[in-house]
DNA sequence: CCAGAATGCGAGCGACCACTCGCGTTTGTC
DNA sequence: GACAAACGCGAGTGGTCGCTCGCATTCTGG
């Protein structure tokens, strides 16, 4: 991996926020989103490491040089793409994961709503799954991935907490971790199928989570 | 990928079964297992694609040329390693997954026994998980992976079948798929922890599967 | 003990890939 | 309309990696 330019941290003088206050033109912004879309499809089909920057540029219909006009390196593409998808996801998921009162919303509804929302998002943006769950991903993105994962786990914990008021914290964490893992596993199956079969797997995932969590909500301890 | 030598099929004269009836010496066999062990550790730490053949040779303390004395290419190393692990696994799992009678063995025991056996094997051979669940894996190994996966699913299906005699086949398949997926997810969590925490996650995985499957065994349909 | 095969070496080859550079084109600004 | 900056190109560069080749060393059968 040629990493020659060590980015000598040219934070030289001015109090300017960015090191290079590159003024983007409208054309440039368009190219960026275009390149990001191309990257999304290439990442989704081949994975991150196997995706070549040349392939992304080709997919976008531009030259490799043009690509590097807007992104300093391959990782930055994934970072930016991941960031934008994360942002878009938060919009969907802040409404769903936060405001839940076990007295009002039964656990069945909480699970169904959350799962539906996440499934929809991931079906719409298959690259997100690749970037966030792909194991061949280098440093910086892995950090974002971890951040998302822990955020997700914490959210599930707070979602779970009111249902199990008298459970020790580590146990709740484990349950939340399992939930996220189960969700990931289910998502993979769901993305691998289409139509009625996909719907059936969605239902199956809900069943798993429901049967797993309902005993907790009912205070049953086996 | 440089694939120059097209193996000109030097089936020159004799009706020998193999193209090269290479007589291995004891030293060679030792080198092979040594290289395979080295490959296992390198694969387990860096994944398949990121693992360089030179790194494997270095880990084994031999030169790259020596490595290619015993394996035609990088893929063959993974194939052979995967094959040996598969073989070793079958020994553990044929005893567990086959002979189960729901009248004699309750579902709790079936789950516990199966999970324990598989967990143990995967903890012992972390490279197996990487080779079988890594997404950066080229053609041939992916085939073996798929073969293992479907075998696993089929086994779980037959394991499940006696508990749900009147369920439609596709539904059983879906349930089996979910079980395998859940197991994979749980395994990842288990491998990521140690000691008491690991044990707790093992228990958690068993709980998930148990709560998921018990309603089926009891004929309860939500 | 001695041919010949198996084993061992490591510099090097070719292909690929992330990334660059010089130069031409378009766009915004005064 | 003129100047600068942003945009666009694509051949080229350095580096890594899978793999080879010629040659030295060790083993094995007769």
Automatic annotation (TrEMBL), chains A, B:
Keywords: DNA-binding, Transcription, Transcription regulation. Residues 17-28 have a biased composition (Basic and acidic residues). InterPro entries: DNA-bd_HTH_TetR-type_CS, Homeodomain-like_sf, HTH-type_TetR-like_transc_reg, HTH_TetR, TetR_C_22. Pfam families: TetR_C_22, TetR_N. Residues 52-71 bind DNA. It comes from the Bacteria. This is TetR family transcriptional regulator. Residues 29-89 form the HTH tetR-type domain. Residues 1-28 are annotated as: Disordered.
């Amino acid at each position: 991996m040629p990493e020659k330019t060590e980015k000598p941290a040219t934070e030289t003088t001015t109090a300017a926020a960015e090191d290079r206050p590159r003024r983007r033109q409208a054309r440039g912004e368009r190219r960026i989103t275009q390149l990001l879309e191309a990257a999304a499809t290439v990442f989704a089909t081949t994975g991150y490491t196997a995706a070549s920057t040349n392939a992304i540029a080709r997919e976008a219909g531009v030259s490799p040089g043009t690509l590097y006009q807007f992104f300093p390196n391959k990782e930055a593409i994934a970072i930016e793409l991941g960031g934008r998808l994360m942002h878009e996801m938060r919009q969907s998921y802040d409404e769903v994961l936060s405001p839940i009162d076990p007295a009002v919303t039964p656990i069945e509804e909480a699970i169904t709503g959350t799962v539906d929302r996440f499934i929809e998002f991931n079906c719409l943006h298959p690259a997100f799954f690749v970037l966030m769950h792909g194991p061949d991903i280098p440093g910086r993105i892995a950090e974002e991935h971890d951040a998302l994962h822990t955020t997700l786990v914490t959210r599930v914990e707070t979602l779970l907490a009111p249902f199990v008021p008298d459970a020790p914290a580590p146990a709740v964490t484990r349950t939340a971790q399992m939930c996220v893992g189960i969700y990931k596993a289910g998502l993979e199956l769901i993305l691998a199928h289409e139509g009625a079969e996909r719907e059936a797997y969605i239902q199956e995932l809900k069943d798993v989570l429901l049967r797993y969590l309902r005993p907790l909500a009912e205070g049953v301890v086996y």
